[in-house]
């Protein structure tokens, strides 16, 4: 597939060979699911993380994105970046870092925003699952 040259080669690479496409069972207690949409264009991104309950580390991640090439590339990068990190660490991943990594043009910034939001939503989902089973632990956002 040929994309216009205005896209950075990393976008084309992640678009043609997206990493970690797939789904986990959203009812699995070790899984956090983030499902977010971009009002600007109607694109939807689902990003899931699997947490090692012993260490609190994200040991696996996957995504499914119904959207443009930049959104697919952003979610692919996001899944690579969250693997092996602690949940609190991934809350620091900024869409601007993803956009910079992929050299997204300004009109495509919201595509990387979708990835940042999806990461946060996945962590929130995981925390809320565990807040329910635990006492009144406040879900970290
Ligand atoms: Fe719909 Fe991005 S605007 S695919
Ligand atoms: Fe809407 Fe990329 S996510 S154009």
From TrEMBL:
Superkingdom of this protein's organism: Eukaryota
Entry's Gene Ontology BP terms: iron-sulfur cluster assembly
Secretion signal span: none
Cellular location(s): Mitochondrion matrix
GO MF term (any one): iron ion binding
Keywords: 2Fe-2S, Iron, Iron-sulfur, Metal-binding, Mitochondrion, Transit peptide
Segments crossing the lipid bilayer: none
Coiled coil: none
Name of the protein: Iron-sulfur cluster assembly protein
Lineage: Eukaryota, Viridiplantae, Streptophyta, Embryophyta, Tracheophyta
Full protein segment contained here: 24 to 164 of 172
């Amino acid at each position: 597939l040929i994309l216009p040259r205005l896209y950075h080669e990393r976008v084309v690479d992640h678009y043609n060979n997206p990493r970690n496409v797939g789904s986990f069972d959203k009812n699995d207690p070790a899984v956090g699911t983030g499902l977010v949409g971009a009002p600007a264009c109607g694109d939807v991104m689902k990003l899931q993380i699997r947490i090692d309950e012993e260490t609190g580390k994200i040991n696996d991640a996957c995504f499914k994105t119904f959207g443009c090439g930049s959104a697919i590339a952003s979610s692919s990068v996001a899944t690579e970046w969250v693997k092996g990190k602690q949940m609190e660490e991934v809350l620091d991943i900024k869409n601007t870092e993803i956009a910079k990594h992929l050299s997204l043009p300004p009109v495509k910034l919201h595509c990387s925003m979708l990835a940042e939001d999806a990461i946060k939503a996945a962590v929130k989902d995981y925390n809320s699952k565990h807040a329910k089973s635990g006492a009144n632990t406040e879900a970290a956002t």
